[in-house]
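Can anyone check this?
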Amino acid sequence: MEEKLLKRIEGLRKKLNKFGNTRNLNASEVVELSRQLDCLLNQYYRIKANQQLSIW
Protein backbone atom coordinates (compact mmCIF):
# COMPACT_ATOMS: atom_id res chain seq x y z
CA MET A 1 0.00 0.00 0.00
CA GLU A 2 2.79 2.40 0.89
CA GLU A 3 4.50 1.86 -2.47
CA LYS A 4 1.26 2.51 -4.35
CA LEU A 5 0.70 5.70 -2.36
CA LEU A 6 4.23 6.90 -3.14
CA LYS A 7 3.64 6.32 -6.87
CA ARG A 8 0.40 8.33 -6.70
CA ILE A 9 2.22 11.11 -4.85
CA GLU A 10 4.99 11.23 -7.42
CA GLY A 11 2.50 11.23 -10.32
CA LEU A 12 0.52 14.10 -8.81
CA ARG A 13 3.70 15.99 -8.02
CA LYS A 14 4.80 15.77 -11.67
CA LYS A 15 1.36 16.81 -12.90
CA LEU A 16 1.25 19.73 -10.47
CA ASN A 17 4.69 20.89 -11.63
CA LYS A 18 3.58 20.74 -15.26
CA PHE A 19 0.34 22.62 -14.58
CA GLY A 20 2.10 25.14 -12.33
CA ASN A 21 4.56 25.97 -15.10
CA THR A 22 1.90 26.44 -17.77
CA ARG A 23 -0.98 27.99 -15.82
CA ASN A 24 -1.57 30.64 -13.23
CA LEU A 25 -0.89 29.23 -9.75
CA ASN A 26 -4.37 30.39 -8.72
CA ALA A 27 -6.01 28.41 -11.52
CA SER A 28 -8.64 26.00 -10.25
CA GLU A 29 -6.83 22.98 -11.74
CA VAL A 30 -3.59 23.86 -9.98
CA VAL A 31 -5.34 24.47 -6.66
CA GLU A 32 -7.24 21.18 -6.92
CA LEU A 33 -4.09 19.20 -7.75
CA SER A 34 -2.33 20.83 -4.83
CA ARG A 35 -5.20 19.89 -2.51
CA GLN A 36 -5.12 16.29 -3.74
CA LEU A 37 -1.37 16.12 -3.24
CA ASP A 38 -1.72 17.50 0.28
CA CYS A 39 -4.25 14.78 1.11
CA LEU A 40 -1.98 12.03 -0.20
CA LEU A 41 1.01 13.43 1.67
CA ASN A 42 -1.02 13.57 4.88
CA GLN A 43 -2.00 9.93 4.40
CA TYR A 44 1.63 8.97 3.83
CA TYR A 45 2.83 10.82 6.93
CA ARG A 46 0.08 9.20 9.03
CA ILE A 47 1.22 5.76 7.86
CA LYS A 48 4.83 6.60 8.72
CA ALA A 49 3.84 7.97 12.14
CA ASN A 50 1.87 4.78 12.90
CA GLN A 51 4.86 2.68 11.88
CA GLN A 52 7.06 4.67 14.24
CA LEU A 53 4.58 4.22 17.08
CA SER A 54 4.43 0.47 16.51
CA ILE A 55 8.21 0.28 16.95
CA TRP A 56 7.93 1.69 20.47
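Reply from J.R.: I decoded it. The chain has one domain: 2-55.
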